[in-house]
Amino acid sequence: MPASRRNFLAALLAAAWPGSRATAASPAALPLLGLWPNGADPAPFLVSEKYDGVRGVWDGTTLRHRSGRAVSAPGWFTAQLPHTPLDGELWLGRGRFDELSGIVRKVQPVDAEWQRVRYMVFELPGATGSFEGRARRIEAVVRQNGSPQLVAVDQAVVADRAALQQRLATTIAQGGEGLVLHRADAAYVTGRTDVIMKLKSMRDTEAVVVAHQAGRGKYVGLLGALEVRMPDGRQFLIGSGLSDAQRRNPPPLGSVVTYRYRDLTRTGLPRFATFLRVHTTM
Known about the structure:
Elements: H1 5-16, E1 31-35, E2 45-49, E3 54-58, E4 63-64, H2 75-79, E5 86-91, H3 97-105, H4 111-114, E6 118-123, H5 131-145, E7 150-152, E8 156-157, H6 161-173, E9 179-183, E10 191-199, E11 203-214, E12 223-229, E13 235-238, H7 244-248, E14 256-261, E15 263-264, E16 270-271, E17 274-278
Parallel strand pairs: 1-10, 6-7
Antiparallel strand pairs: 2-8, 2-9, 3-4, 3-5, 5-6, 9-10, 11-12, 11-14, 12-13, 14-17, 15-16
């Protein structure tokens, strides 16, 4: 099994979405978020909201998912994008991830639905200079483009740890997912790195479903828990966070799911793991 989580997920995509095999391209090398360490100084970083959307990578001609597959967006949506390569999130609004996922998964896009989708741009793939400079260039590209669908992600300085925690609390209270911190002086890098990190009230990551555990008590005849495998091969159960509908029709074996957890046990397993959704890297 590949060592990195990105390669692990890429290897699982065919199992998670069987119809993707014929059309999938090679996953692009992209920046991936690390985890913000408690007590770190945010002063060297620019801070933005972490948008709960679907990753979209624009190479100047084609909009793709993180897996490399083309996004089934309407022609008018991509026609208005600039020739400049962009990286960002397709987004509807806070707390509307499931609705967005349903829109972008459709093979035949619905124009009225895509009119409500915004492309929140946070990076210029392969561009030179510092991130602070690239952020200013993103603002200029979006301003010159003029499309209501294209939005530059707001990047701001946070003075200290207390201000960072206050911004996180405000974002969560307003229905946001969390924050992203990107070193202002960082060159463009790909892979998982400490120059770009996420901060949430709880952590989240992915695992592959390897078995269904039968329910007991009020869940007799339904799913009791998902048995999942981590990228390092270890397995554990996720029994919380599943709706009754999901217990009746659980994520299939081989699918990739996203779960939240508070921290890790001494053995490195997630503590208080809660099912969040079926993973949507397409």
